[in-house]
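Data card: per-record layout.
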Amino acid sequence: MQKEYVRSSPSNKPMLTVNHHRDYPNMYYYKNWAIVVPLANEEKDFEPFIKMINFVIDELNPGNVYFIIDSVSKDRTLELCRELSEKDSRYVTIWAPENRNVVDAYIKGLRVAYEAGHDIIIEMDAGLSHDPRAIPMFLRVLNEGNDCAFGSRFINGGSMGDSPFKRRLLSKTGTVLANILLRTRLKDMTSGFQGFHRDVVAKIINHPFKSKAHFYQTELRYLLRNHKIFEVPIHYSAPSPRVSKSAIRNSYQTLWYYFLQRIRGKSQAL
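The structure for this 270-residue chain is written out next.
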């Protein structure tokens, strides 16, 4: 039976207080961990996002925070990342104009962090979609013997606050369809907030993913289904309901591909 870890306040809202090292046991420190953040057009929310990241890493001391930026970004995001990297060595800016899609950005970040030798790698979105204050829970889960930690908006303690109805519907429908067609059992199959041990990352970065857009998250969960997985409650806020028609089309194509592979007895796994 899959466990769910929730640290709650009396109001049943997740409560994370990162004020003193004594608040956390030593298990948060014995691993060399890193954060990977693909960014594009995040100029507006860059400063508040960094403040929230600093709130966590000033106490939990990661190896590095890797910013992955490519030519999709048209504002001052790259410049802001480079300025921060010059001031604070914990932040590393990776310019990757060769990226063809968002999946390339995710894989690029994981590869860079893997090659830098980190033991645990946490992947998250910028723009305040993902709350960095959930990171301590990811670290605890991954330090307790789990191979993968996946953020979930649909378990006790998780939510999709301020997200438009269309975005919530897409996420929930995607989870239901994936669980039915692929026989997975996770409560959230589409979240992009996740963490992995180094040996799992080695498999991810060497796999030819079929997804070209958001379905990457679902494909990844399906392929890693045989690993020891734990779902972590997260709060997600999507500023826009927009998901491109090409991304939705690619999602259906990839889901159908894996469904056919499964019923033909050719299921794939990492």
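Known properties of this structure: Residues 1-29 have pLDDT under 50 and may be disordered. The chain is about 35% helix and 15% strand.

See the next section for split statistics.
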